[in-house]
Amino acid sequence: MESLYKEIDNQRDFIISLYKEFIPIKALGPENGGEGEYSRAMKLKEIMEKYFDEVKEIDVKDERVPSKVRPNLIGTIKGRNQSKTLWIIAHMDTVPEGDRSLWKFDPFSVTVDGDYIYGRGVEDDGQAIVLGITLAKVLKELNLTPNINFSLLVSADEETGSKYGVSYLAKNYSLFNKDDIILIPDAGNPEGSMIEVAEKSILWLKFTVIGKQAHASTPEKGINAHLLSMILGITLYEELHEKYDAKNELFEPPTSTFEITKVEKNVENVNTIPGKHTFYMDCRILPQYDVDDVLNTINEIVKRFEAENNCKVEVEVVNREDTTRPTDENSETVKLLKNAIKAVKGIDAKAIGIGGGTYAKYLRSLGLNPVVWMTCDETAHEPNEYVRVSYIISDLKVISYMLM
């Protein structure tokens, strides 16, 4: 282990060079205005073939992208016991950069500043990709055979529902055994003490308020859909938080959340009252609440709002992911990870739940016990997203402890 740790300590230059190879290749799903992950996947496949015993590509058809497929890659190093595998599961797609003026550096290049590496997707979920490939490189160069198989799954479409990623693979392929150790580095905290074992239900909703367009100087002739949307948004926010106010201390934050997020463009000019306005809500719902009950409450609020304001409101479910059973906190995976974190970092990790959605939910539905863990400052989806090389080095030692 000392030789392995020493080699891991020497991987800084490789980690930086690896990021520089794939981060500049955009991997946005078509829902986010992109062409999918194909180009990035081909680069990662080329790299993975240098360090894994075998690399398998599983393509899922998607006519919306130029390649017509969304690729998923599996690299494997065979262990002494080949009936069991330690998995790292990563996703290669990212979200858009958002407002570029908020970035200090080009989001789709890689900028290194001391311990920090900046770029869109370097944490979410490039950190998992780098962990998997770097560990494979170290094992190969030291000619080490792990106790069990080591596999890296680099998958597609995590940011927009996983229809072409792990969700599809879980339904159509028998990739995992019940005794496998499954690690998903896609959430964490700066101490590396957070082991995610449960997730909230996710509900994304689109609200379109239809009023009547008019000149802004004669508001009495119209029905201001934008103004009504703001009032409806506040009404939903307040009433949903009031009704679904339970706390579950397993989760951070411990409550359900109902956030107004995206809005769509309405009129072109300032002096026109819009007759149509569309906004979105992101709901993260604690497991004790039924998603259908939340939807019924929303529809009741909307129906009352329509009657009170002489307007029409269309409600569309954009995405729905009901929570599954949590990972067993007494499972081998949780115990092994806690022991590894204690041995490497000298801290006691704890199991928690999060509001974010990861690949773990699809695997939990199969009766498996995946955990979501890594060390990070939680900059995913933010401008100036970054990772720290020291965090990656530390996490590599934890994972290698679990594997060896």
UniProtKB/TrEMBL annotation:
Superkingdom of the organism of origin: Archaea
Record key words, sorted: Cobalt, Hydrolase, Metal-binding, Zinc
Peptidase M20 dimerisation domain mapped to chain residues: 197-306
Cofactor(s) it depends on: Zn(2+); Co(2+)
InterPro entries with a match to the protein in the record: ArgE/DapE, Bact_exopeptidase_dim_dom, Peptidase_M20, Peptidase_M20_dimer, Peptidase_M20A
GO molecular function terms listed in the Swiss-Prot or TrEMBL record: hydrolase activity; metal ion binding
Family: Belongs to the peptidase M20A family.
NCBIfam families listed in its UniProt record: DapE-ArgE (TIGR01910), PRK13983.1 (NF010589)
The protein's name: M20 family metallo-hydrolase
Native species: Acidianus ambivalens
